Amino acid sequence: MQWLRGYSQRLREAGAAIPLDERTIDDLDLDAVFARIDFTESLVGQQLLYARLIDTSATHEDRERLDAAATRLAEDQPLATRVAGALDRLTDARTLMLPDMFFGDMPDRPFYWPIFPLLTVAAVVSIVAIAAYPRALFAVMLIGIANAVLKAIHKDTIAGMAAALHMVPPLLRSGRAIEAIDCDALAPEQLLLRANLPALRPVGVSTAWLSLEPGQTNEIVASLYEYVNLALGLDLFAFAICIRGLRDNRDQLRAVFEAVGRVDVALSVARWRNTLATWCRPTFTAPAKRMRVARLSHPLLDEPVANDLQVDGAGILVTGSNMSGKTTFIRAVGVNVVLAQTLNTALAESYEAPELVVRASIGRNDDLSSGKSYYLAEVESIGSLVAASGGNRQQLFLVDEIFRGTNTTERVAAGRAVLAWLTRANDIVLVATHDLELLELLEGQYAPFHFREQVVNDELYFDYTMRAGISSTRNAIAMLRLMHFPPALVDDATATAERLAQRARLPARE
Residue 497: its pLDDT value, please? Predict the structure, then answer.
């Protein structure tokens, strides 16, 4: 997926986007989510869709425009087909280089660039004069040598831009095709195209000549193209025009790129929604520690079990045994908040929540590349949540098994302190944990929920349904029995669990 991140990285560097942090992107598996929801037609659309997915700062007006276009495209198949036809010329991998044309550093034209058109004119005059003055052939030969020398000097510069330049003409043709479509829902993008395409006509002509690939035609055409460039220096002349045009019209090229991409994003959302059994448009509320989502599911699950979530003034502590679904649930909440705020689509029957900055600390691996233990990496991750809490923008914090990498006493003590800190302001906190002690220590600050399992016919059965209250089942000891550990060992573990539960004043079993 790294090949798609170039555009979003450029936006970040230019300060034009506020993307999710890398930890949250990884913890929510957003690359996999992107692959599941991606129905774009072009690589321009893919770049815009990925950049949009990881930036939850879209405005209400932007979401409304996307929704209107996606709705129209979902309802009008002939229109969707026509839009797809306008975009399918942008599938070449070199399309990924287009952002270099408006974000990257453009080379300067050489100070002697006026000699390029002069050589072209002189070559044409000399060729015409050959019939009357045969000695003019020597002038043509000298001009050809000069063009060859200049071409050798600028060979590396032209080659370095060749991939991106090749895709400028297809981008402009796609823009013109979209501009010509009669569709009110696409009007914002069409207005941008209408305003910016005219300034790019000289760039389109010059890049069209430079991006010709005579090797893909017959040998006669290929040879003719090379001879014309050598004799007339048209490639050097076109390159000089191209550099000037791109330097003067970078904003216009970017506007066309993004307008075309946004149309493709709308097409992708329309197609994706048509594959969903259940989805809704989100309702965004004023900032408050309140959130209501009905029948929420995760987009990466083929047969998801839907669950409800209601946050009302307190954080949420989700307990349950391994594999019961608690981590998947908090991931599902995070992913749906992202989808709601970026694509105006939630995988739920209803969704009501404030606009939130999503931050996650869910992963569990040691950072071997930097020599960090899991615990140190987690402390840094949790520290970033603590630093962000109580800020100007309301946060959604997603935490899984806080401080797993240390001993029980310190884990519970540090976990209680951190979770109490995170929920003290208006931020919403969802926590998955095995530490039942946290339920008592955070009573009143967090509402308890749980997932449970049952042993049916000597097999563990999970219904993946979240319930209010404290989890009272454990599968660790049940797994020992199911895996045929000695009965005495299993009985010993069960008795110890009961004593520890009584000491903690928590039930050991139902």
Answer: 81
Q: 283-469 in CATH: which number?
A: 3.40.50.300
Structure tokens belonging to residue 380: 């840094």
Give the number of other CB atoms < 10 A from CB of residue 264: 27
The pLDDT of residue 509: 47
- Using DSSP's 3-state secondary structure scheme, residue 462 falls into strand
Please classify residue 234 by burial: count the beta carbons closer than 10 Å to its beta carbon, then call 0-12 exposed, 13-18 middle and 19+ buried: buried
pLDDT value, residue 212: 63
Work out the widest C-alpha separation in the chain, in whole angstroms: 112
Q: Is 69 exposed, middle or buried (0-12, 13-18, 19+ CB in 10 A)?
A: buried
pLDDT of 371: 47
* 3-state SS class at 296: strand
The fold for domain 2-110+154-274 equals MutS, DNA mismatch repair protein; Chain A, domain 3 (1.10.1420)
Q: How far apart are CA 509 and CA 108, in angstroms?
A: 75
For residue 149, the model assigns a pLDDT of 77
Give the SS3 label for residue 442.
coil
- Give the integer Cα–Cα distance in Å for 342 and 357: 12
Go through 459-492 and write b for each residue having 16 or more CB atoms within 10 A of its CB, e for each that does not.
ebebebebeeeebebbbebbbbbeeeeeeeebee
- Structure-derived torsion over alpha carbons of residues 17, 23, 28, 31, reported in degrees to the nearest 10: 60
Instruction: Compute the C-alpha angle 284/185/256, nearest 5°.
Output: 100
- What would the two tokens of residue 356 be? 């939130």
Global confidence as pTM: 0.85
Cα dihedral angle (439, 442, 443, 449), rounded to 10 degrees? -40
Intervals of the chain under pLDDT 70: 1-3, 158-160, 210-227, 229-234, 363-374, 405, 472-475, 504-510
Give how far Cα 175 sits from Cα of 79, 89, 185, 242, Å. 16, 11, 16, 19
- Specify the residue for token string 């993946």: 464
Tens digit of each residue's pLDDT (9 = 90 or more) over 189-230 = 999 999 999 999 988 887 777 666 555 555 666 666 666 766
Bridge partners (DSSP) listed for residue 318 = 432, 449
- Position 377 scores a pLDDT of 78
Name the DSSP class of 313. Answer: S
Note the pLDDT of residue 366.
45
pLDDT of residue 274: 95
Query: What is the spatial distance between Cα 47 and Cα 7, in angstroms, rounded to a whole number?
Result: 6
Q: What is the pLDDT of residues 429-462, one digit of tens each?
A: 999 988 888 888 999 999 999 988 777 777 777 8
What is the Cα–Cα distance from 231 to 124, expressed in whole angstroms? 9
* Residues 14/103, Cβ–Cβ less than 8 Å: yes
Distance (Å, whole) CA 2 – CA 26: 13
